[in-house]
Amino acid sequence: MVGGGGGYQGEDGGEAGDGAVGEIGGAAAGSGRLGIIENKDLLNRITALYTKDFPWIISLNDNATSLLMNSLIPYLAAHLQLDAHDNMKVTNFEEVLKQSQMRILLNELNLWQNNAAAYERGIEDCEKIIEEIGKEVK
């Protein structure tokens, strides 16, 4: 979990989050920019944001976007029927919602709740880090 400098955990229990943001964290650390931070706990928490937490959030977003673009939207486009006189009115929405594949897709969309929770934890961690930096600077 975020908080205390730990990363998000994947479904297999291992830490998730490799990618471009992780590379940014590594680049920041390699540039010496983080070397000015004397508080090791604060440094570890900042590094964890870039190497674990942000990549995990990006991974969640990528999964949700992929599901939406590759599964849900095509499924709805193939199964929803629009009213002949009002193309903004769906005539068979309840029917489509009752179909097994649609229920499975909606269940998979619960991962968006995970996205929101990951963002909330990330924002909370950022706020705590900013607060700690404020204390360090004074």
Automatic annotation (TrEMBL):
Record protein name field: Uncharacterized protein
Organism annotation: Puia dinghuensis
Organism lineage: Bacteria, Pseudomonadati, Bacteroidota, Chitinophagia, Chitinophagales
